[in-house]
Amino acid sequence: MSDYNEPPTSDEGRRTGWAELATGETVELARPGTRFGARILDGIIVVIFYFILAAVAFGGFLSGDDSGVYSGGIAVMFLVGLAIGLAYEVVQIAVWGQTLGKRMTGIKVVSAAHGGVPGWGKAVGRWLIPGLVSLIPFVGWLLAILCYVSLTWDRVYQGWHDKAAGTLVVRA
Predict the structure, then answer these.
(1) Which of 27, 68, 109, 111 stands the most exposed, by the fewest C-beta atoms within 10 Å?
(2) Please, are residues 166 and 160 in contact by the beta-carbon 8 Å criterion?
(3) For the chain, how many helices (H) and strands (E)?
(4) C-alpha distances in Å from residue 89, one per residue of 4, 7, 62, 95, 163
(5) Using CA atoms, how far apart are residues 54 and 81, in angstroms rounded to an integer?
(6) Quick one: which of 11, 22, 29 has its CA closest to 152?
(7) pLDDT tens-digit profile of 122-135?
(8) Phi, psi of 170, deg, nearest 5
């Protein structure tokens, strides 16, 4: 059983719950279950915000007046949903290294190079990877799920999006 209370002292290749940054500093990694919990919380928050915005923007949607909602409204709401996801995830990760879900679960995203806040480029890249693969017809949804699940078989719990962006998710 791995010890998550102190840095590893041996066997670089096995999972220890710790990672070494490019600076030489050792950080405690967030466990996959905690990351999944944060993702669920973030999903709930985004969906609630999205439906509140949809109700305000398309008041007729709730009142039964569907004129306009189906004639382009669905495309607009898709773009609004995309913008909400981008704003929610990217802004918080770039500025604080944590979304609300990550704050609630006590984890944060850091740059693997220096351990600080990832910044805008890494935050956008980290958000784009699962988003872009999800656009592939027929299998995109599966690839997006694999993007996140891939952290479970990685030594330092990096999903494809973390590897591409050069980030780690650590305990805050």
Answers:
(1) 68
(2) no
(3) 8, 4
(4) 27, 30, 28, 10, 17
(5) 9
(6) 29
(7) 999 999 999 889 88
(8) -125, 165
Taking only the tens place, the pLDDT of each residue in 99-108 is 999 999 999 9
Q: Which of 117, 120, 111, 122 is nearest to 22 (CA)?
A: 111
CB 10 within 8 A of CB 152: no
Q: How far apart are CA 136 and CA 87, in angstroms?
A: 23
Cα(68)–Cα(87) distance, rounded to whole angstroms?
26
The reported pTM is: 0.82
For strands 167-171 and 107-111, give the pairing. Answer: antiparallel
Cα separation of 123 and 25, whole Å? 22
